[in-house]
Amino acid sequence: MAQEELRKEETLAMRNRLIGQSCKLFYSEDPVKIVRARGQYLFDENGKRYLDCISNVQHVGHCHPAITKAAAAQMDVLNTNSRFLHDNIVLYADRLAATLPQKLCVFYFVNSGSEANDLALRLAHQYTQHEDVVVLDHAYHGHLMSLIDISPYKFRKLAGQKEWVHVAPLPDTYRGIYREDHPNPGQAYADTVKDLIEDVHKKGRKISAFFAESLPSVGGQIILPQGYFPKVAEYVRSAGGVFVADEVQTGFGRVGHHFWAFQLQGDDFCPDIVTMGKPMGNGHPLACVATTAEIAGAFTANGVEYFNTFGGTPVSCAVGLAVLDVIVEEDLRGNAVRVGAHLKDLLTKLKARHEIIGDVRGVGLFLGIELVIDREKKTPATEAAAHVVKRLKEEDQICVSTDGPWENVLKFKPPMCFGMENAELVVQCIDRILTEHVASSTQHRLLWGFTLEKLDFYLEINNSENIKAVTVNFK
């Protein structure tokens, strides 16, 4: 029996009553009620269409028919846990192995990026027999307790930094300690990790892992400087630790020319552990850890079975296989290269027109626009970024969100079917909003102060376009 659809007001009231208030909505002041989606578009209860620039989880597009068909077909036949022998899990692992460096040849399937990162921590601890972890500033690796502990983005708002967690500077060449004008920022930032490791050793502690997103997202859509990962891996391995690349946000071809974002650091670079999630199942809960035979062997040697009830089920793996097929058949990596380059070029031209745009950065369909009040001081324009997001939603039906430590970076991680016309529309609308924002903020006050005998007064002139008002104020 079909469920009668609630009115938006009823849905919101029930959500406020039944769902934990820490579970936030997009556009909380005026939420959008989405009832269906297709490709890069969302539709509300009135049929209004929104362009989705946010949903990197729906990697090949919302409700892709090939994914839906694969899931339904397998669900109709079998969906057991992975303790029963079945083709799908091994066929899927084999397909994933073909996208990765040869030494990353053992796979553990789980349900979410958080589970994957938690398991990566366990693998690192078991293999190295060390405890301490080095992470990047502003990093976010998941919502489990173990991952909040290694996520400065979270733990600084909660219980604070644990003794075994060590925070390295974010390699941000726009506003970090080493910037675009540095002759070798990759080496310079890597050396900060080397110094950190030396400090750890002086305290009598040992490094288990260096844990980093291949492209920091919550940190502000950061593109890491060349050479950074290989040098960090060298230092970490020399200290007896392993290198973990978190690809939960950026994997599966989002960067275009490469299937994995860590590959941007060079063909010879290979992490010891790679975690993946969000886009993997196109909305289906599917995630994974890939590692070496040596690390997997150490994990097996502890004598404790690893079992995940829903990880690697026949349905999950059927969905995963279908996602890989669509990426190839629809040339979505090629689309990320072409559309991403076009969008970045348009945004760069926009930067030349608007002083408020401090930086445009990104690769493929992973892009960020950093808004600043002052280009020289790089003062974050947080309110302006929120203003742009709000108006894009209300006036243009475009869904964009912000990231970065100051929430001043407009981020773009749309479904990979995002088209040229979508890129052009977004830039056109941002251009209009920023132009109007600057015009409204140019209203300025000219104050003259006078003293006439014992009577103080001043003239206040407000200039706004062609309107001039003169106010005489007596004190």
Automatic annotation (TrEMBL):
<dbReference type="GO" id="GO:0008483">
    <property type="term" value="F:transaminase activity"/>
</dbReference>
<dbReference type="GO" id="GO:0030170">
    <property type="term" value="F:pyridoxal phosphate binding"/>
</dbReference>
<dbReference type="InterPro" id="IPR015422">
    <property type="entry name" value="PyrdxlP-dep_Trfase_small"/>
</dbReference>
<dbReference type="InterPro" id="IPR049704">
    <property type="entry name" value="Aminotrans_3_PPA_site"/>
</dbReference>
<keyword id="KW-0456">Lyase</keyword>
<dbReference type="GO" id="GO:0016829">
    <property type="term" value="F:lyase activity"/>
</dbReference>
<dbReference type="InterPro" id="IPR015424">
    <property type="entry name" value="PyrdxlP-dep_Trfase"/>
</dbReference>
<keyword id="KW-0663">Pyridoxal phosphate</keyword>
<dbReference type="GO" id="GO:0005739">
    <property type="term" value="C:mitochondrion"/>
</dbReference>
<dbReference type="Pfam" id="PF00202">
    <property type="entry name" value="Aminotran_3"/>
</dbReference>
<dbReference type="InterPro" id="IPR005814">
    <property type="entry name" value="Aminotrans_3"/>
</dbReference>
<dbReference type="InterPro" id="IPR015421">
    <property type="entry name" value="PyrdxlP-dep_Trfase_major"/>
</dbReference>
<comment type="similarity">
    <text>Belongs to the class-III pyridoxal-phosphate-dependent aminotransferase family.</text>
</comment>
<protein>
    <recommendedName>
        <fullName>5-phosphohydroxy-L-lysine phospho-lyase</fullName>
    </recommendedName>
</protein>
